[in-house]
Amino acid sequence: MAPGPSNRLVVLAGPTAVGKGTVAAVIRDDHPDVWISVSVTTRPARPGEVDGVHYHFVSDDEFDAMVAEGALLEWAVVHQAARYGTPRRPVEEALASGRPALLEIDLQGARQVKQNMPEALFVFLTPPSWDELVRRLVGRGTEDERERERRLETARVELAAEPEFDVTIVNREVHAAADELVTLMKAPLRAPSSSS
Q1: Are 67 and 89 in contact (CB under 8 A)?
Q2: pLDDT at 3 over 80
Q3: CA distance 68 to 51
Q4: Domains of the chain, with CATH numbers?
Q5: d(C-alpha 24, C-alpha 100), whole Å
Q6: What pLDDT score does 194 carry?
Q7: pTM exceeds 0.90
Q8: b/e per residue, 51-68, with b = 16+ CB within 10 A?
Q9: The pLDDT of residue 104
Q10: What pLDDT is attached to residue 151?
Q11: H-type helices in the chain, by residue range?
């Protein structure tokens, strides 16, 4: 069944450290009517992350099995290290139920979803500036220097993908960005127009 006006999938992507996870967490807390996909990953949990809430943490073998079974809507190797993916069945169930549905994923995953579900709305979350992105990445203190450099290199490439998306939201303040995203998610679908 194709998604209807009330249940179009919204895909949120953007560069590393832009705050995608933080925006999704605010939406999870403030808008319980919005369904948010929980990705699977082979990376270890960071301090404070809860299995099944932030991610489903799985082994490489479990991830391989999900890929082989076609159980993932998308998956990718991120930062040349861990694998991340979106379980397919929960997305299909959320769309069938008519709830606003959000995927918060990386750029590679967003491109795969665009191939599989081109009717989704693709939203790019961007930082107010490059310096702010660097400050956020360094400030969260979850990566060592080598990992930070790898993520910043990835971010340079990811920022160049903004034109591939339908809408851009600048993450100046996380609650404002979350509210802007939810407003987009709940807006009725309308036919594209030639004037803006």
Answers
A1: no
A2: no
A3: 23
A4: 9-186 (3.40.50.300)
A5: 13
A6: 40
A7: no
A8: eeebbbbbeeeebeebee
A9: 92
A10: 82
A11: 20-30, 60-68, 88-97, 107-116, 130-140, 145-159, 174-186
